[in-house]
Amino acid sequence: MLKRDTAVRHLFTVMAIIAISLAILATVAQAATPTHHRTVTVDGLDIFYREAGSNQSPTVLLLHGFPTSSQMFRNLIPALADQFHVVAPDYPGFGNSAMPSVEAFDYTFDHLANVMDRFVQQLGLSTYSLYVMDYGAPIGFRLAVKHPERVQALIVQNGNAYDEGLREFWKPFRAYWNERNEANAAPLKKFLNLAATKWQYTHGVRNAEAISPDNWIVDQYFQDRPGNKDIQLQLFYDYGSNPPEYPKWQAYFREYQPPTLVVWGKNDYIFPAEGAHPYKRDLKTIEFHLLDTGHFALEEDGDVIAGHMRRFLTKYVVQASN
């Protein structure tokens, strides 16, 4: 009996050493895969993007939300880059990409999607998995409808494609969509200040002290550039072009059935969990996770999301292509 107990303890010790070794190897691999910060010219515009991992690996295209940029993926990129080719662009008017004025550039979601389409073509990304969040959803789903053959999988994080997801938060936006005037614009301008930007990062989180203030400070720096608030207000107005597109996106889901991973901050007031559940109506291969956090779920549950992504993409993209 004593010998058996000793053998069992020895076995558990060996297993623990193996697990620790694998974790160390994964950490070393991630640290050895740098993130590159690059710029490419698309339609005469400088488009900044972050890129990591071998371009021989399956590509994950990360599409950011408002009011941020590829900055929101700064931790997710190295967490995936040892196994995947990860690309995260900034849209025109956001982050480190060019910021032409509203008079010089048509700030619509159709146009942003077209720029991202040409960006993808210029980088030679023939296939990819799409991570869509917030503004990334209407941009990414336009790409998917236009080029369904490119999309290997979807990762949806607080990005809407169903009417159920547009609740109280959107009432002043609907008024602006219906009648674009200064009176209806006034309440929307309040979303463009530092307090509102900070609120997006801290509302609904478990521990606000765990969220770095660098997030809202960096985002607000870009928003406070001369002319940028005009850009954001124009996009607030054009967001009204997205709900009429929902039936097209849902038809794409039903016809092409991309494997889909939903990782959704359930305490998000902007895109509440009611907008997450309808994806299950149209998609057959779907993995669904509601996370106890807010709008920018990566800030508090980045490791959890990265773990779900690695496992999901390994099963439905890496193994499926072998």
Automatic annotation (TrEMBL):
- Pfam families for this protein: Abhydrolase_1
Domain of life per record: Bacteria
- The chain positions of domain AB hydrolase-1 read 58-301
Q: SUPFAM superfamilies, alphabetically?
A: alpha/beta-Hydrolases
Give the UniProt keywords, A-Z. Hydrolase, Signal
* Keyword Ribosomal protein recorded: no
Q: What GO terms are given for molecular function? A: epoxide hydrolase activity
Q: Which residues form the signal peptide?
A: 1-31
This protein is called Alpha/beta hydrolase
- Which species does this protein come from? Entotheonella factor
